[in-house]
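Q: What would this chain look like folded?
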Amino acid sequence: MAESDNPSHYKDKPIESWDAIISQLSEEESIGYLRGSSMKHLMRFGSKGGITIDKAMLDIKKTIKYCEKLLVNLEKLKITGAKVTNTPPPSTNITNLFKDKT
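A: My prediction, written as structure tokens:
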């Protein structure tokens, strides 16, 4: 794994940051956190630190890592039979953020 995929400032930590964050969240909040984080990396695709192929690839790799973590989280919920019911209604869809409010 390249240094940029696993920066040195993460290597001395006893726990991954996302695991520490998720440990403090409900199932629904964990799903939202991982989903939002994966969307963040995909949406900024290649624009952080200059637009280069390497930066774009790094953002995609981070997106995949968060999606994989989300998938593992969902698989655990399925195995335990947990019911995730806090689905936002369609009116809170992101496309509504861009509609003219006037």
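The chain has four helices and no strands.
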